[in-house]
Write a structure and sequence with these properties.
Layout lengths: L31 H15 L10 H28 L8 H28 L5 E3 H9 L3 H5 L3 H8 L3 H11 L4 E3 L1
Antiparallel strand pairs: 1-2
Helix pairs in contact: 1-2, 3-4, 3-6, 3-7, 4-7
Length: 178
């Protein structure tokens, strides 16, 4: 592995040389840890002695490997389909407004927390518009805090660039803070 501080928790379980690097202050994680956790869970389920129809270990490992490859291929195809669709889709004025309202509601919920965190770390409680947009779009914040499931599902199917563009339009100031 690359040089990491001794107290750091590695998020990559394997040697890596070309991992996507984040921009700004937000960290990205490897999907490898999630795959590993799912493989372990599946293995433990299929080796549970409560069940009498478990395959032998060699067969089970081969089945898990084949299943993982098949599911990863399917997930990859779906990922490519989602990022390459809706590119030219016309968004109604109503949906555009709902997406922007959803983004602003999300910031209302998480913004104060983030600014407080910055202040507690001795930093100025101020975020650029770009950082606010990235934070609001991060993970599933809008799903949990946006208050509009239909708008979220529509927005979530859009390509990343379009998502960011719509949310960026909701924030009219160059920075946000106290």
């Amino acid at each position: 592995m690359k040089n990491i501080p001794p107290d750091a928790v590695p998020i990559h379980l394997y040697e890596f040389s070309n991992v996507l690097r984040p921009r700004g202050h937000m960290e990205k994680e490897s999907i490898g840890i999630y795959i590993l956790e799912r493989l372990i869970s599946s293995y433990e389920s299929w080796t549970d002695p409560k069940y009498g129809d478990n395959p032998d270990t060699t067969t089970l490992i081969k089945l898990l490997q084949d299943n993982m490859k098949e599911e990863m291929d399917g997930a990859w195809r779906e990922f490519i389909k989602r990022i390459n669709t809706n590119e030219g889709q016309v968004i109604s004025d109503e949906m555009n407004k709902r997406i922007k309202q959803m983004a602003l509601r999300t910031w209302d919920v998480i913004g104060g927390y983030m600014l407080t965190l910055l202040k507690e770390r001795g930093e100025e409680p101020l975020m650029s518009k770009a950082d606010v947009v990235a934070l609001v779009c991060y993970a599933s914040y809008m799903m949990y805090h946006g208050g509009d499931k239909e708008a979220y599902e529509f927005w979530n199917q859009l390509p990343r660039a379009k998502k960011m563009e719509l949310v960026s339009e909701a924030f009219t100031c160059s920075s946000y803070g106290w």
